[in-house]
Amino acid sequence: MARVAVIDPQTATGETKQLLDAVQSGLGMVPNFIRVLANSPAALGAFLGIHRIAGEGALDLQTRERIALAIAEQNACQYCVSAHTAIGRKVGLDNHEMLANRMGRSSDPKAEAALAFARSLIEHTGQVNAAEFDAVRRAGHSDAEIIEIITHVAMNIFTNLLGKATQVEIDFPKIELNKAA
Hints:
Elements: H1 14-27, H2 32-37, H3 41-54, H4 61-74, H5 78-90, H6 95-102, H7 109-123, H8 130-138, H9 143-166
């Protein structure tokens, strides 16, 4: 059970209702994570804004989901691993690839470089060295893509923190973590 209220989109009012209706319209559902975030319309609006902007970038959908899976596993957020496994399937990732992604690996060398860079960002709290930076660039990532990798890492740290701190109920097929929290 979540540690904070899980807002019901049917009884929400004002700005909260508008934001939840927009999520429902876009996703066909309102995940519990969003319902918890809806306790603060300002926080929900900010998250949806950065999520929309991050979704318009140069990184392909599969790489974005790979990053989300790698970060969720690294941060031991079962809600996010479960959610992004379901989303990953929708964008064409298979189970074998997603398991590899959770460990920072990929069958796609360019994606694997993005995952290695993303995991280094977490491990070193942003203080990546020149070799790590050069490796992601040598793999074919543009400056725009590198900035987007950093953006997706930051966004996923936020969702991992929120999911873990609030203990939001998992409303996707539950996926076990590979490691203990």
